[in-house]
Protein: Short-subunit dehydrogenase
Amino acid sequence: MPRAPFNPRVSIVTGGASGIGRAIAAELVARGSHVVVADLDGDRATRAATELTAAGPGVAEPATVDVSSFEQVRDLVDRTEADRGPVDVMVNNAGIALGGLLEELDERHWDRALAVNLGGVVNGVRAVYPHMSARRGGHILNTASLAGLIPAPAMLPYTTTKHAVVGLSTGLRAEAAALGIGVTVLCPGFVDTPLLDEVYEAPPSIAGGSVRQAVRLMQPKFLSAETVAARAVRGLERNQAVVPVGVLAHLLWRLNRWAPPAARGLCRVQARVHRSRVHA
Ligand SMILES: NC(=O)c1ccc[n+]([C@@H]2O[C@H](COP(=O)([O-])OP(=O)(O)OC[C@H]3O[C@@H](n4cnc5c(N)ncnc54)[C@H](O)[C@@H]3O)[C@@H](O)[C@H]2O)c1
Structure:
């Protein structure tokens, strides 16, 4: 049976002012959607929305939101439903980078990772779910990471939250199917965005707060945000459960399922390399 064209009327993208979120917003605007570009950085959201609207044929509007606040996310969703109509697609994408060995990290790293990378997704899901379930339709896209599919050392607050986002998404998918709601989780390898250079409260082993050079050892060529967004929206269109993006993500995800000892060995090497930097 031919698939119906995927043209969501109203969408919300958190973390939509930059990187992957901005590129997903651009894909949705290109499909004619009215997209709310929601971000902590309101000025950047306004600039992104203006540029995306100029590209059309859809429209983008900016919104300032801190996804770690349930009240703010609920207000954003309720306002959008009231002003623009049913939210067809909710993209819970906002996130921050964290890195370093466990002994270098303190409660600031854990609290922030849990509040933004996990709490932000939980808040987005909880805010939109009552609307989508009442009308028995809609699609939720959560951005996790390759770090949500494999044991990723030297960034445990990040790895922990991304595994949780995968668990939340795949579990919810099973529950939500009966209500006509699709749930997809996006798991890209390393992507060329500002996030790689903005490690939160970077510890000594993350020189200059950037992981760009270090991760090149694992993935010499970064993915573009546009490639990831195109795969994400195709995943939405096909109602895929998990969307890994990039050769590294596909390889390591498979290795971890088919030969877990090999995957664990590889991660031990990665941890050892990182530790050698601390003591260099
Ligand atoms: N860049 C990568 O290599 C990579 C790989 C896999 C997954 N991801 C994930 O993709 C998502 C987007 O990251 P990106 O690479 O596009 O980064 P980015 O830094 O380009 O964009 C992230 C956006 O999220 C916003 N944001 C941060 N905290 C927020 C908060 N509390 N409330 C609202 N907005 C907030 C930022 O202002 C920014 O605009 C993140 O969840 C990240 O973990 C990134």
Q: What stands out?
A: Residues 14-15, 17-21, 39-41, 65-68, 93-96, 116, 120, 143, 145, 188, 190-191, 193-196 surround nicotinamide-adenine-dinucleotide (CB under 6 Å).
